[in-house]
Amino acid sequence: MSAATIELLQSMPIFGAIREDTLRHLVAQVREVQVTAGAHFFREGDAATGLFVLESGRVEVLKAWQGRDHLLRELGPGDCFGEMALMDFGPRSASVRALEDCTALELCPEHLQSLFDYDPVQFALVQMNLGREVCRRLRATDELLFQAEMTGALPAAPCHTA
User: 11 and 129 in contact (C-beta within 8 Å)?
Assistant: First the structure.
C-alpha cells in the first residue's frame, strides 16, 4: 500500500487518529473495486455487504421514488458510502452510481472482526468514527427536514430517470 493511500485514509473522518500500522493491517485484507462510469456500486434494496472508501472518481447517491431516481449527494475521493452496512446489516437504503471511472476499497464486517483481533482499541476508534459519520449525516438530514417543514417545500434536487 502506498504512502498516498495511507495519507488519504488518515484524512477521512472514519479513519481519523488510526495508526499507520493499523491501516496497513486493514487494507491488506480489503478488496479494491473498479467501477466504470455509469455502473452501480450497488442498488437500493440490495443486500449490504460492506462500506466503500472512494480512492478515485466521483459517484452519485440516489434514492428511488415514484419510478425516478433522486439525487441525494455527490461524493468524491476520500468519501465513503455504505457505512450503514457495517452497523445495521439491513438492505441498501440508496443506490450509488459512478459518475466517472472509480476505484474504491471495500471494507466488510469480517475485516472489522480482524481489526478487533489485531487491536481492540483501534477497532473501537473506527467504530466511534463510523458512529460520528452517521450522526453527522443524520444531523444534515434533520436540518433539511426541519427546513422543509418550516417552508413547506424541500430544496430542489435534480431527478434522474431510473
Answer: no
The owner of cell 466504470 is 36
The set of cell numbers assigned to 155 is: 430544496
Q: Which residues pair with 95 in a beta bridge?
A: 62
> CATH homologous superfamily for 3-152?
Jelly Rolls (2.60.120.10)
β-partners of residue 73 are: 61
Task: Give residues with Cβ within 8 angstroms of 96, minimum separation 6.
Answer: 40, 41, 42, 52, 59, 60, 61, 62, 81, 82
For residue 49 the three cell numbers come to 455487504
**What pLDDT, in 10s, does the model give residues 106-134?**
999 999 999 999 999 999 999 999 999 88
